[in-house]
Amino acid sequence: MTETAQTATLQLVQAYYAAFNAGDRAAMRALLTEDVAHDLNQGARETGRNAFDAFMQRMDASYRERLEGIVVMASIDGTRAAAEYVVHGEYLANDAGLPPANGQRYVLPGGAFFEIRDGRIARVTNYYNLEDWIAQVR
C-alpha cells in the first residue's frame, strides 16, 4: 500500500509532537525545513532552524510542558495540517514581560497550523489564550 501525502503529513506532525513530549529538541529540529517560519503566539514570526532552537531554549528554561489529547488533521494533498491539544505545564522561571514564576501549574488548550514542504515542516503557527494562561499563573 502506498503512503498518501495526507498520511505522511499526519505522521510528520505526530512525530513532531512526540519529539516535543520526549524533550528531544534535535528530533524536532530534524523535522523542520532550514528556512522554517515559526509564528509565535501573539508575537512575531521567527525564521530558520537556528531561531527555532533559540526559542526552544528560552521555553525550556522557563517551562516544563507536556501536550495531551493531541488531534492532528491534514489536507488531502498533505501541504497543510492543524493540531489541537491541551498543554499541561509548570512555570519554572521568570519569562520576560510575564508574571513571576514560582512553579505554578497550568492546563491550557492550544493549537497549531502547519505548512509542509518536501516532507518537512516549513511553517508552524501556534495559538493559545495568553490571558487564560496569565490568569492561571497569577
Give the fraction of residues assigned to helices.
25-40%
Number of helices: 4
Q: What strand order characterises the main sheet? A: 2-1-6-5-4-3
Number of strands: 6
The CATH C-level name is Alpha Beta
Number of domains: 1
Shape, principal axes of CA atoms:
globular
Radius of gyration: 15 Å
Please summarize the sheet with the most strands: 6 strands, mixed
CATH second-level architecture: Roll
Strand and helix order: HHEEHEEEEH
Content of β-strand = 35-45%
Model regions low in confidence, pLDDT < 50 over at least 5 residues: none
Oligomeric state, counting identical vs distinct chains: single chain
Any idea of the CATH topology?
Nuclear Transport Factor 2, Chain: A
Distance between the termini: 52 Å
The pLDDT mean sits at 96
